[in-house]
Amino acid sequence: KRRAIVCPSLLAADQGALASEVNRMLDEGADWLHVDIMDGHFVPNLTIGPPVVADLSRRVGPRDVFFDCHLSVNNPATLVPALAKAGASSVTFHIEVVNGERAAELCRTIRSLGMRVAVACKPSTSCESSGVYDLCEAGLVDMVLCLSVEPGFGGQKFKPSVLDKVRSLRSRFPDIDIQMDGGVNPTTAVECAAAGANVLVAGSAIFSAPDPAHVISLLRSAIEN
Ligand code: DX5
Ligand code: ZN
């Protein structure tokens, strides 16, 4: 049985009430809070940054919150120290913007600041030729995020073509955390889990539901079963 982790994406939350949305999701059974940090360059959308994460960690304390920060930005390295200070638990950068020795170095920096590290790839990015496999083989990342939509916006349709990539990744790396993000709902979650994903992000599926706790438990059982 794989460790199941369900991560509501704050991108789908009421942006004017983020602190109470975080608390609400913890009450509903969230494991991690997925924070989409977007710079308006890597993706055509602009969201929140380290100062907001810092205030959220302060406001939801003393509860233990895991902030899973997905950096859809061109220059992730510049944000890492501020995110560590802000109380981020994990930092995910995109392999399309940092690769090779710079990616290895960024992984070491993130870990040296006490955070977990993950590498993300867009739907059309190959894990093999981009260097994601190399980072996994070197033990430099805790998790790989396979985007199942083009990053930028919530509410898009799940791309099943990504499942092959997840299957290959899982067969090569049985112990790594594999996260899927984009169009994940209780139906597509079954395919994600069958392909080997054990960490599921969902924005619209959770936030638009009348009973978010129920959706969270369906996502969790898709991974566990
Ligand atoms: C897409 C983001 C996702 C987004 C997912 O750029 O990385 O985290 O919030 O939203 P849904 O679950 O609605 O596809
Ligand atoms: Zn995301």
TrEMBL record:
Transmembrane segments: none annotated. It comes from the Eukaryota. Belongs to the ribulose-phosphate 3-epimerase family. This is Pentose-5-phosphate 3-epimerase. It comes from Ostreococcus tauri. The chain holds residues 508 to 732 of 734 of the full protein.
